[in-house]
Fold this sequence. Notes:
By secondary structure, the protein is an alpha/beta fold. About 30% of the residues lie in helices and about 15% in strands. The protein has helices at about 1-5, 20-30, 45-50, 95-105, 125-135; strands at about 35-40, 55-60, 85, 120, 140. The chain has a 3-stranded parallel sheet, covered by helices on one side. A two-stranded parallel sheet has the order 4-5. Strand 4 (about 120), helix 5 and strand 5 form a beta-alpha-beta unit. The two termini are about 35 Å apart.
Amino acid sequence: KDNLAKRFGATDFVDASKGDPVEQIKDLTGGGVEYSFEALGLKKTSEQAFAMLRPSGVATIIGMVPEGQMIEIHGADLLDDKRLQGSNMGSNHFRRDMPRYVEFYLDGKLHLDDMISRRITLGQINEAFDEMKTGAVARSVIVFDG
């Protein structure tokens, strides 16, 4: 996973299995981050994204937290002007942004192919969902034959 993150521009890494990731981030950044982005759609990681903010920081939840689950934050953290916000499809402007993304891809600036961990058939969909839930792969793409 580190290699994939590095290929996409990550400069630093935190291993959540080796202690509290929020504290690791605060240590790494000298007190917290200005911006955090949660992309898994989990309650715990959404709360961590908010907890790792420095004063006036913004946590953006990109992942889809399951319907009915509540995200909990400490009310006192709001006194530090911290914000929690959502995002729908990256908050893009589809008509303007999609042609740009296609151009970036065709020009070799957007490495979408590297994000595909494996190609599967429709019959492998349940296996792919299990892998997605465990984080074993970045993305599986269903290939339909004729």
